[in-house]
Structure prediction request, 96 residues.
Amino acid sequence: KKYTQEHYMQPITLKTMAAALHYSANYLGRAFFNSEHIRYSSYLHQVRIARAIELLKTTDLPPSRVAEQVGYRDVAYFHQMFRQYTGMTPKAFANQ
Prediction:
């Protein structure tokens, strides 16, 4: 979790994290799920969306820049994930 908190803005996968921590991706994925009861990819999205919410509340950055800042390279995918986790678009969230 600490590695993810520090590197969420980078292109990160379970495989890259496992390599950085000197574990196999399969082992790390199972261990993470057994410990947290959530898949790693879902956890990474939660971390990124939480940071995006923070940026939308505290800055005037447009959603496209927020997406980049939190590690999403595809703005449409960022919008999709943001809506999935919050129930609204990044723009609607920023405007409220």
Notes: The CA atoms of residues 38 and 75 lie 24 Å apart. The helical segments are 2-7, 14-21, 25-36, 40-58, 63-69, 75-86, 90-95. The chain has seven helices and no strands. The first helix runs from residue 2 to 7.
